[in-house]
Amino acid sequence: MTYNLTPRAPRDDEAPQIINICAQSGLFTSEELAGFSEQIAADAAAGTLGEQWRVAGRTGIEAAAFFGPEQIADGVWNLWFIAVLPDRRGSAIGTQLIADVEREAAKQGARLLIVETSGDANFAATRRFYRARGYEEEAKIRDWYGDGSDKIIFRKRT
Predict the structure, then answer these.
(1) Which pTM was predicted?
(2) Which of 52, 78, 105, 135 could pair with 154 in a Cys bridge, judged by C-beta atoms 3.0 to 4.6 Å apart?
């Protein structure tokens, strides 16, 4: 099923739903989830959750993305992650959400969008997702996450 939805900036009161998506996605370690929870809570408390987060869903929030500018590079933005509820994968919700992130970043001056992900076998679908959406593998840093666990860096012009 393809969703017909409009990705949007989240409301500050939707922070718990975003944390839930991160947890259910199965993509993150407990340390990463703790960091995201702190970031989401801080952004919500400051009233800025909608500045670097985007959400999408047909019934509630079913996918979330976190992105923002690289502080030391001109026009380079990072897509730190995109997470989709497991039972919504394959529905095109992630495709619509990443396209929205790309538009938002470009509107705010991004010329490049960078994505960093794992080279581990359990992230093969993640890497295929980015490649299918026009992201090019720019670099691989061997053993980044641990011995035998590489970091793969993708890039796309906005």
Answers:
(1) 0.87
(2) 135
**For residue 7, is it within any domain?**
no
Residue 4 inside a domain? The answer is: no
Which residue range forms the structural domain that includes residue 44? 12-157
- Ordered per-residue pLDDT tens for the chain, 158 residues: 444 578 898 988 888 999 999 999 888 889 988 988 898 888 888 888 878 899 998 888 999 999 999 999 999 999 998 999 998 888 889 999 999 999 999 999 999 999 999 999 999 999 999 999 999 999 999 999 999 999 999 999 99
Here the CATH number for the domain that contains residue 147 is: 3.40.630.30
Report phi then psi at 148, rounded to 5: 80, 5
Number of domains in the chain: 1
